[in-house]
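check this one:
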Amino acid sequence: VQLQASGGGLVQAGGSLRLSCEASGSIYPINNMGWHRQTPGKERELVAVIGSGGNTNYADSVKGRFTISGDNAKNTVYLQMNSLKPEDTAVYYCRVDTSGLDQSESWVAAGYWGQGTLVTVSS
């Protein structure tokens, strides 16, 4: 599975950015698509995730400011980030989780990461 992320960049505090991530090459259904972020010296943390049925979950730190959405037909997930703060500065990674039955009818589950896109919010 290949993930192509885009949309990062430099923005002033209070500004907005929109990230997108397109998944291709999966032979199993995509269950969840989401965004995580990481800063130097810290563990990668969940930002937001959306299930194939449209259910969403957000980190408390971004609730009310970020909106995750998905286009199942395009296997693409978006993250609209508004009211950005300097503490949102991080490398943002998209993630896709897939699962399904293989040819031997064994359950296969896997997660894939995108290459990361840098978001920098200046104060």
